[in-house]
Amino acid sequence: MSPPPPVPAPKRAKILVVDDDPIVLKAVTSILVREGYQVVSIDDAVEGLTAAKDPSIDVAVLDIKMPNLSGMDLLRGIKAVRPDVEVIMMTAFATVETAVEAVKAGAYDYLTKPFENIDEVSMTVAKAAERKSLRDRARALEEALSARNQFEELIGQSAQMRAVFKLVETVSHSTATVLIQGESGTGKELVARAIHYRSARKDKPFVAVNCSALTDTLLESELFGHVKGSFTGATSNKKGLFEAADGGTIFLDEIGDVPPATQVRLLRVLQEGEVKRVGANEPVKVDVRVIAATHVDLSRAKEQGKFREDLFYRLNVITIDLPPLRDRPEDVPLLTHHFLKVYTAKVGKRVTGFTPRALEALTCNRWTGNVRELENVIERAVVLTSKEVLDTDDLPPGFQEAPQAGAQVEVFSLAHLPYAQAKRLAMRAFERRYLTALLEKHTHNVSSAARAAGVDRSNFRRLLKQYEVAGRTMKRSKDDDDDTLDAAS
């Protein structure tokens, strides 16, 4: 079985425009082409319905009053064959009734002709395209999450995690001892469970024990059991976890914290396949597969005399190294979607995804606490938000000052990322800071700022939307023909 497929990168939206008025059709097409969209222009509603079946169409802009087939009927027809397409209706006969009817039929938004501001067209289409993109992204992540079910709760699409999946698949069918190494929070127990539940022992017990959470005496008693009277408090005979796991798998988490005396007893289990309860004389045979895990370097601990060399080699038959989350940032979107799904269901809220800059902020974070820390951040955001799409202000305070939110980018903060991704994030942060500073310098006058930047005004507006500068929207100045930014929005 192959690991989950990669999630595709977002594409530039393709727009279908249908209007029987050639002047309006040409004008809307020109506006959208100038904004960089692929545009399909059709002057007949029946032909428009056929064109809408093209799976590459993301947004449809439709006139309501058309011969042969009305815009409302075309809207219903498109939604019947392509319910994922976002539809924007245009009409010169705007009424509350038609607006309500269009929305009920599945329209995303409504434009009135003649357009008072051409930017209204491009901005409405941009919002619809972004909504379609977010839904496509969520669906792709959902498909990737469904594909990963074969590896239980292990989630990832990076090369590192694909290598882990392949190794899990291979070692599951053996009985060899496995040593899982990785930082705290990387999912070592999930790997152990995946190995167990894909093995011939899957119908037998899986027993997990945290070796660092117990005192020396309690740890031996828990692992090997004890007989009545062997120590103070031993009021009856008790089976240990090795006996409880007979026929199955025992997972020894934080094996590096096991004291020397217990290491000797563990070695006997691995060598002889038997345990001796504390205070007992006779050993008990057990058939248990051992999977151990640690966040410390056992090889170094061995060299320092803190871990038995013979036990190390008994445990280190097959090693699985789990990469920290900061070394596989491409897995962050998949993990965030998974945790979003988990906690929206748990809390009972409708939260559908993340804004691009929120996802960038999450991807760029170093995640010293690894997947466990990411899970906590998403749970917090879901509990506290009142929005349907999470943004940077829904994340903990540190994320709101992240590079992609407009703050200064330090090279060190990106050093954990692959070069290409670090460069892309740094460039995005620079361009957002530059655009914000330029607009402030020119009192949010778009035309003036575009001239100062040496960029065509339409391209400059597209940059503003792309980088979500200050979350502001554009309107036409009443004093001259220049565009300004509405600070009230």
UniProtKB/TrEMBL annotation:
Domain Sigma-54 factor interaction stretches: 154-383
Positions of post-translational 4-aspartylphosphate modification: D63
SUPFAM superfamilies: CheY-like, Homeodomain-like, P-loop containing nucleoside triphosphate hydrolases
Residue ranges of domain Response regulatory in the record: 14-128
This protein's UniProt keywords: Activator, ATP-binding, DNA-binding, Nucleotide-binding, Phosphoprotein, Transcription, Transcription regulation
Superkingdom as given in the UniProt entry: Bacteria
Single GO term (MF): sequence-specific DNA binding
Matching SMART domains: AAA, REC
Keyword ATP-binding included in the entry's annotation: yes
InterPro entries linked to this entry: AAA+_ATPase (IPR003593), AAA_lid_NorR (IPR058031), CheY-like_superfamily (IPR011006), Homeodomain-like_sf (IPR009057), HTH_Fis (IPR002197), P-loop_NTPase (IPR027417), Sig_transdc_resp-reg_receiver (IPR001789), Sigma_54_int (IPR002078)
BP terms from Gene Ontology: phosphorelay signal transduction system; regulation of DNA-templated transcription
PANTHER family assigned to the protein according to its UniProt record, in alphabetical order: ALGINATE BIOSYNTHESIS TRANSCRIPTIONAL REGULATORY PROTEIN ALGB, TRANSCRIPTIONAL REGULATORY PROTEIN
Record's protein name: Response regulator of zinc sigma-54-dependent two-component system
Species assigned in the record: Cystobacter fuscus (strain ATCC 25194 / DSM 2262 / NBRC 100088 / M29)
